[in-house]
Amino acid sequence: MPKPLRVGMIGYGFMGRAHSNAYRKVNQFFDLPYQPVLQACCARKEENIRAFAEQWGYASYETDWKKLIARDDIDLIDIGTPNNTHRDMALAAAEAGKMVLCEKPLAMNVAEGEEMCAAIEKAGVANMVWFNYRRVPAISLAKQIVDEGRIGRAFHYRATYLQDWTIATDVPQGGAALWRLDVDAAGSGVTGDLLAHSIDTAEWLNGPIRRVSAATETFVKERVHAETGQVQPVGIDDACMFLAVFDNGSMGTFESTRYARGRKNFNTFELNGENGSVYFDLEDPHILQYFKYADPKSGEKIESHLTGWQRIHVTNSEHPYMDHWWVPGCTIGYEHTFINAVADFLEGLDSGKPVQPDFRSALRTQKVCDAVLDSARSGQWVEIAR
Question: Does 386 map to a domain?
Fold first, then answer.
């Protein structure tokens, strides 16, 4: 029988639901040494968190996150709250000896992230940051292809992450629903919210980014604050684009915006190498496109009349994670990436091999995000701190 792992969930919004669903379903599809138990959840408004607890099956709830962390019947703290709360909650959880899972981005800035990493590592507690797109089977297959040497020497990496939900000028900022538009709660706009995903994926596939040159734009300069009703300046970036140079010498381009009309969650990447290329589009998540130019072992070129992009339907049992799901040809979706992530975390607890990305790995992404924003302010290339 798997050992119980008692979860304390802080937050009940989009990520609170995604994480809770993963905890509830993971043991139904993976044979694991641990089984998450929905012990308690937490939010400030009692009426809301009571309803959330009842809907998702939490045994109890709290309205003070400090009380939740102090409870003896909690093993793991999951931080699914706005970015400006991550630091204090993670530090308290580490001090209490709890495992910590945290939503991305790790922190408001590198200074906070360094403090969080130091506390987590001093406490020696298991930890993970929810960069869930690593657990899309097609993206994991891209990682496998790169690790097998099938791309060869990397030349170019390009990523886009486009949405359109903030174009209207009457969209307010702040509050429970729109805290991502409030710089005091989010720290940044698309850079921390969207490009953090792109950066994490890029460094996972193609290695560390060495330096960046960036530009940002805020198209709507003032918005009504949802909580105060006052018109206030908008401090977050609506759009960001940056150039990157990787440690391996390859060049990268990154673009993100919430002003791409018609794009809802358009997240793509392409990696071009000497022997091949891979391309992924989250709006077609079960497909990985792969171009093979030469055999990775012999170096022999493919006959020119046989070259072309392959559309790999990533649903076979040989593909990452898919042996836990359905028969070939049946796809999985967004929510399954969180289930796959929880499964990896629980397996890591048993094996003793820390799951990635952990806090230290997420700090790398935070350093790139901070460098991007610094470059946008200065108009200069910025080196990534080691």
Answer: no
Is the distance from CB of 173 to CB of 234 less than 8 angstroms?
A: yes
Whether 229 and 318 share a structural domain: yes
CA distances from 94 to 79, 88, 121, 127, 276 (A): 12, 10, 9, 10, 44
Task: Enter the pTM of the model.
Answer: 0.96
**How many independent structural domains does the chain possess?**
2
Residue 31 lies in a domain: yes
Q: Are residues 25 and 65 in the same domain?
A: yes
Q: Digits of tens for pLDDT over the chain (386 positions)? A: 899 999 999 999 999 999 999 999 999 999 999 999 999 999 999 999 999 999 999 999 999 999 999 999 999 999 999 999 999 999 999 999 999 999 999 999 999 999 999 999 999 999 999 999 999 999 999 999 999 999 999 999 999 999 999 999 999 999 988 999 999 999 999 999 999 999 999 999 999 999 999 999 999 999 999 999 999 999 999 999 999 999 999 999 999 999 999 999 999 999 999 999 999 999 999 999 999 987 777 777 877 787 889 999 999 999 999 999 999 999 999 999 999 999 999 999 999 988 999 999 999 999 999 999 999 999 999 999 88
| Range(s) of the domain holding residue 19 | 3-132
158 and 223 fall within a common domain: yes
What's 219's DSSP letter? Answer: S
Please indicate, yes or no, whether residues 179 and 107 belong to a single structural domain of this protein: no
Q: List C-alpha distances in Å: 317 to 173, 301, 334.
A: 45, 29, 19
End-to-end Cα distance, the chain: 43
Are 122 and 144 found together in one domain?
no
